[in-house]
DNA sequence: ACCTGAACACCGTTCAAGT
DNA sequence: ACCTGAACACCGTTCAAGT
């Protein structure tokens, strides 16, 4: 009796949390499972596929939360909440953003379900045509995942690099001084999501509730 | 008389255009320059630094175009134009988006200058406080670079993967059908930038010109 | 059905030594 | 100042062969 794909994916997720994405190799993963690296290719066709399935597990907690807004006019709040939930799910795993970046939605089905739901809500509740609804949904996912990647990566910004940026670019230096403190990541995430939601409100057809 | 850093960076850019980012290794680059791989470490401290300098060259065409809007009230048009110019500059090199993704602004100085200018315009012309101006600028860069990465990467989406997405997610399937055609990338880019610009207008203090 | 052994074709980086 | 030789410590992936 050998290993199963689900076990492979969950072990990979544990190694990710312990050592980060750049230490997650198929050889290490195989070692952890007590097999040789090529054995993994029976369970998974490539490393990218493994990362896609890991993304599926990472984003799975969102799926029960995807019911649309009870009141269609409340779609902006629903979208903010959904973006926040995705952000949290990605932050819950070390390098979760980087794993999800570029994931194929055919394998990261939970992420696909999030995308699908956002398209529906932007189409049906916000009143965008389907093409723009899907563009909007893509932009939301890209922004949430992209911001999470930066948040989880900024360990490796050296103080010297920061000092150089500061000395070259005075407005950014002043801005960085204002953005000290542990809540800045959360505030910046909220700000970015708000920009998008307000932008979507601006391009959406006017609602009777306005 | 040996090689110079500028020569290293420009040769790297040529190899990038010819073979793409995943084939750009320090060994190949060294071979192209007629030296051994470790020789590159005299000119550049790491591969990431090389990519940062490549980003600097890629984004350099923007620098002469960075004068702010003549009329402060015209900042939304200025921002759309600047985003478009950055997009074009990144598209001008194979995998240009991926190279710029995560570049350090202390070495990719031209990209730093773009960021700095956007912060200034959002602060002085749009009237955002400095913290939000820098958050807004960061969001713009992230969106432009992120969309360019996706645009330049979508060669490797297999038809089978697409078919699976289509069969699982009906709204996305319908949306994809509407988004056929060669202009969709440009339209989607414009849509995403518009979302952000409209969002910024919404959070900016009202202007006398409104 | 599930895995191993052995190999292919590579990586980025370090560092003593050479000129 | 600029580069080589040799090595360290790895990678993802393929494929014939084994059980």
Structure description:
Chains A, B: Keywords: DNA-binding, Repressor, Transcription, Transcription regulation. Chains A, B: One of its GO terms (molecular function) is transcription cis-regulatory region binding. Chains A, B: This is TetR/AcrR family transcriptional regulator C-terminal domain-containing protein. The structure is a homodimer of 210-residue chains. Chain A is mainly α. Chain A has 2 domains: 5-45, Homeodomain-like (Arc Repressor Mutant, subunit A, Orthogonal Bundle); 58-208, Tetracycline Repressor, domain 2 (Orthogonal Bundle), CATH 1.10.357.10. Helices cover 67% and strands 0% of the residues of chain A. The model of chain A has no long low-confidence stretch (mean pLDDT 95). Chains A and B meet through helix 7, helix 8, helix 9, helix 10 and helix 11 of A and helix 7, helix 8, helix 9, helix 10 and helix 11 of B. Chain A binds a DNA duplex (19 and 19 nucleotides) through residues 1-3, 25-27, 35-39, 41-43, 46-47.
Summarize the structure.
2 copies of one chain form a homodimer. The first copy, chain A, is mainly alpha-helical and about 210 residues long.
CATH superfamily of the largest domain in chain A: Tetracycline Repressor, domain 2
End-to-end C-alpha gap of chain A = 62 Å
Of all chain pairs, the largest interface belongs to: A-B, 57 and 58 residues
In helices, the fraction of residues of chain A equals 55-70%
- Major beta sheet of chain A, specifics? none
CATH fold-level label of the largest domain in chain A: Tetracycline Repressor, domain 2
Please identify the structural class of chain A as seen in this structure: mainly alpha
Compressed to H and E, one letter per element, the order of chain A equals HHHHHHHHHHH
CATH architecture classification name of the largest domain in chain A: Orthogonal Bundle
Average pLDDT score of chain A: 95
Count of discrete structural domains of chain A:
2
Per DSSP, the total helix count of chain A is: 11
**Beta-strand level of the residues of chain A, as a percent range?**
under 5%
CATH class label of the largest domain in chain A: Mainly Alpha
Unreliable sequence segments of chain A: none
The protein's oligomeric status is homodimer
Radius of gyration of chain A over all CA atoms, rounded: 20 Å
Q: What is the overall shape of chain A?
A: flat
Protein name (chains A, B): TetR/AcrR family transcriptional regulator C-terminal domain-containing protein
InterPro entries (chains A, B): DNA-bd_HTH_TetR-type_CS (IPR023772), Homeodomain-like_sf (IPR009057), HTH-type_TetR-like_transc_reg (IPR050109), HTH_TetR (IPR001647), Repressor_TetR_C (IPR004111), Tet_transcr_reg_TetR (IPR003012), Tet_transcr_reg_TetR-rel_C_sf (IPR036271)
GO biological process, one term (chains A, B): response to antibiotic
GO molecular function (chains A, B): DNA-binding transcription factor activity; transcription cis-regulatory region binding
């Amino acid at each position: 009796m050998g290993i199963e794909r689900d076990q492979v994916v969950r072990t990979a997720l544990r190694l990710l949390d312990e050592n980060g994405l750049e230490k997650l190799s198929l050889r290490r993963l195989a070692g952890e499972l007590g097999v040789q690296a090529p054995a993994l290719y029976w369970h998974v066709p490539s490393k990218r596929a493994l990362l896609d399935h890991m993304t599926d597990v990472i984003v799975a907690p969102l799926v029960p939360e995807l019911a649309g807004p009870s009141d269609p006019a409340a779609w902006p709040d629903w979208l903010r909440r959904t973006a926040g939930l995705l952000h949290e799910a990605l932050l819950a795993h070390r390098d979760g953003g980087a794993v999800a970046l570029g994931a194929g939605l055919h394998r990261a089905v939970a992420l696909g379900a999030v995308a699908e739901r956002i398209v529906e809500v932007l189409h049906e509740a916000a009143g965008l045509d389907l093409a723009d609804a899907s563009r909007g949904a893509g932009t939301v996912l890209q922004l949430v995942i992209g911001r999470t990647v930066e948040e989880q990566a900024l360990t490796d910004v050296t103080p010297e690099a920061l000092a150089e940026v500061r000395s070259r670019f005075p407005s950014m230096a002043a801005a960085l001084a204002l953005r000290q403190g542990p809540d800045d990541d959360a505030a910046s995430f909220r700000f970015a999501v708000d920009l998008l939601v307000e932008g979507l409100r601006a391009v959406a057809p006017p609602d009777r509730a306005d």
